[in-house]
Amino acid sequence: MKILVIGQGGREHTLVWKIAQSPLVEKIYCTPSNAGIAQIAETISIGDDYTEIANWAESNKIDLTVVGPEAPLAYGIVDIFNEHNLTVFGPNKNAAQIEGSKDFAKQLMGKNGIPTASHQTFTDADKAIDYIKNIGTSVFVKADGLAAGKGVIPGRTVDDAIEAVKTILVDRAFGDAGDSVVIEEELIGEEASFTVLSDGSYCLPFVSSQDHKMSQDGDTGKNTGGMGAYSPAPVITPDIQEYVMDRIVYPTIQGMSQIGCPFKGVLYVGLMMTEAGPKVLEYNCRFGDPETQVLLPRLKSDLIPILLACIEGTLEQQTDVEWHPEAAACVVMASGGYPDPYQTGKVISGLSNAESIDDVNVFHAGTNFDDENVVTAGGRVLGVTALGENLKNAIETAYKGVSEIHFNDVHYRKDIGYRALSRSENC
Ligand code: AMP
Ligand code: GLY
To answer: What is the mean pLDDT of residues 140-158?
Structure first.
């Protein structure tokens, strides 16, 4: 099979790495790609016009296209590929609203009794501000649309919450994505990422994972795309997994079908484990980044038949999906300054030393080639991932990999997995 992967981050490098292990696959292409992906897949430089990409895929007889990020999915890349009669993995535009509109997601949860934070949606700043003053408690203020992970602003005081409403609705800091705001109560607890594949009716749960969204140790600093991840997440016990499948995942998938938006693809549910049980913080319509970097190394089975089964509606027949028992940890090495502005073009050294450590994979995110060198080209640069007999070992080995890699002004968290480790010394 000839496969095309859309994207250029650590998630897509991991997808390409996993797909390359399939005996069904003869060639992989990727657009826009990065320096790590380019070592296993042919880079296609074609821009981001999705019709052009579909035309290219048609002329090059691509058998399967896998879409990594949310933006092309929300735009409708799957619909465009389907119009070209191409096989493509991911939800269509209607189904991708589950991530593309927070108000859509909240309405879906409301209609289907799915546990989540109470909320109100506003398009009018004055009404939103009155609401905040009335409730007077700590809230989260969210731009309705996609805002590259930046559209969620904590409003822990009334003044902060009012400021957040003004940023989104009045200053329009996120453009059209901020045509409306969702204001919701703050949930207290530990977060976890719950990933399933769905063919529109059946759901296949992945192993659990957890990421670290804040930029600095101890979950301080600014919200980022994710500074590291690990799997399994001990907070997701078998009982909690069953509850999440029954009370959250299946009602979500059934609710989507009932409104004419059957969901085929990856449903990644961001959960808060509150005292009253797990509640949904957000839905994503694609694999998490950096969660993918710890999930796919644990998947023993071939990914390709599973993705095809999602598209064909036969996922229930994939009864022999196997996982490695080892734990996995990923430490993201970022450009100093990220998520604020940062410099790029720094030469990265030590990659092959890190990769030569047993059980270590270095997944590239923002990297590029400059002559002979691999250089930094983004905020999140690398995801150094390791498997280990338990989480403690996986984390230690990932940090061993990190210690081999150097670039100017590097920043990474030193405490990836600290919550899991504090639960049990040998989890
Ligand atoms: P979201 O994109 O909606 O998941 O929000 C990004 C991050 O903001 C989440 O991962 C949480 O850390 C935090 N967050 C969002 N909504 C809430 C909430 N209602 N209560 C507490 N934290 C939240
Ligand atoms: N790790 C967070 C995300 O992928 O949205």
So the answer is: 91
